[in-house]
Design goal:
Low-confidence stretches: none
Shape: globular
Number of domains: 1
Helix content: 25-40%
Structural class: alpha+beta
Number of helices: 6
CATH superfamily: q2cbj1_9rhob like domain
CATH architecture: Sandwich
Largest sheet: 12 strands, antiparallel
Number of strands: 12
Distance between the termini: 15 Å
Length: 274
Amino acid sequence: MDQHQIVAQILERLHRDREAIAAAWNTPVGTETRHFYIDNLLPQLVVDTAYAAFPRDGSGFFSRESFREKKRTSAHITEYAPILGNITFAMQDPSIVSLLSEIVDFDQIEPDPALYAGGLSMMFKGDFLNPHIDNSHDAKRDRYRRLNLLYYVAPDWKLENGGNFELWNEDRSTPVTVVSAQNRLLVMETHKSSWHSVSPVVTDRPRCCISNYYFSQVSPDRSDYFHVTSFDGRPEEPIKKMVSVVDNTLRNTVSRTLRIGRGKGEINIDKRTP
């Protein structure tokens, strides 16, 4: 399935499920962060081929490991089978970007071919992503991050595997869990309080995801603001919570002063466009 065929498939689903998507988006339960997901997005052969294209050991991926997170990522799409690029850049097709922005009623939304903080991710047993809000901007800091698109490809992924997506309530005491089920596209808004996380993986198989982010020169609340990716501990992690406050403050200060950005060296160098 080439990129144009994938675009057509996604457009068909968005049009068909438009009313259900809008209803889910506008009435989030258990969290203030608006979101929706679509199951069985692409033909089974396509998603199975995508999963097979991920290196089983995560070789070639950039490893992130700290008290905040443990995962592997890559924005170098051309180093892997074409299907991964086809899916990634299909999500950036102008027709899909336009329709999605219309459904969620966002202004001036644009994709990011550089895949700043996007691209491919893998999480293995013991990997996790603590509650956090995403970096507010793109790599050049001239557009605000507005939408996250997460497409899961690992087969037979169940709740008991861990590695599931979590959206938190306002005081970050209770998450809403969305299983990282194969062939599921999850779309969520990004703003100053859209706290989300990934529960620790407990199975011996890798969790694989294809990520895209949409940006806009219009901020979520029409105000001018900036912050780095900022973390918190889970409710049962009081020490991490205290450390995270200091850590976030220091990294925000350094980033504002020196304009050092998380992951700026890990961007897509391929000139391919949607």
